[in-house]
Amino acid sequence: MVKRPITCGVMEFSEPSRRRLLWTLGAVGFAVAVGSDSVRGTAEASGSGASPQTPTAAPAPRTPSPSPTPTLPGHPAWRPVRVRRYKEAITNLDQLDPARPPKTISLTIDDGPHPKYTPQVLDLLAEHQVTATFFVVGEMVKEHPALTRRIVEAGHQICNHTMTHPMGFDRIGGKRIHREIAEAHARIAQATGVVPKYFRSPGGAWSRQVMEKVAEYGMIPIGWEVDPWDWRRPGVARIKRALLRSKDGAIMLCHDGGGDRSQTVAALREVVPRLKKRGMTFVPL
């Protein structure tokens, strides 16, 4: 049998060459087919390229997961919740529930944070290992957020003392009372992550409207039992005498903001260790 050459275009192939050619073309065809399927699968997975020949069922619709409900005031979704409304402000630790142990007193410090005097007070408290309660003003928190955080990081309690500290707070009208409390609440929470539990009205001015708004924000109204009038700067000796009269359960009032508080700092340097030697323990509210 004569092996005839096969003509392919302008080229001629013998029988063995033809078999090799057919095998090669078959292998290439298989590779092309596999590669085509692979590319098509990739395109389908990425959502691009031609649609698959065989239609597939549409995926079931997904229900989006709800966003976490924010817990800090100041967020549009946060809403205050009304709690017990007090008729009078708390002035002694025995009035709190639960009452604090015997031989305990509470040092409360108002009107800061102040860039000069608050750090001095914090250093003094750290030296004597005393925990205090700071009633801060929202506009001061806005100006000094890092110092506000330092108060909390040092282990002290931080509370709401309105946004701008307006005097005659009980007579400024319901809308402004709301705004003063709400804005300070948000500022404190946003700066520190702490939602204030206690509120003190500027000058100790209370009214039914103030009490209702305090309760709406879940806070307890706090007054004081011992007032050295340190904000008037009556002298270190007078401030000391007033504070040293503190007895069991007393809530003491001092200031680290609102003016020159060097007399207060000087008085506390002597008062704090003397009260501790008397057997008193300083506790937060």
Automatic annotation (TrEMBL):
Comp. bias intervals (Low complexity): 50-60
Domain of life: Bacteria
Gene3D superfamilies the record matches: Glycoside hydrolase/deacetylase
GO process annotations (BP): carbohydrate metabolic process
MF (Gene Ontology): hydrolase activity, acting on carbon-nitrogen (but not peptide) bonds
Domain NodB homology: 103-283
Biased composition (Pro residues): 61-73
Pfam family, one: Polysacc_deac_1
Region of interest (Disordered), ranges: 40-79
Protein's recorded name: Polysaccharide deacetylase
Provenance organism: Thermomonospora curvata (strain ATCC 19995 / DSM 43183 / JCM 3096 / KCTC 9072 / NBRC 15933 / NCIMB 10081 / Henssen B9)
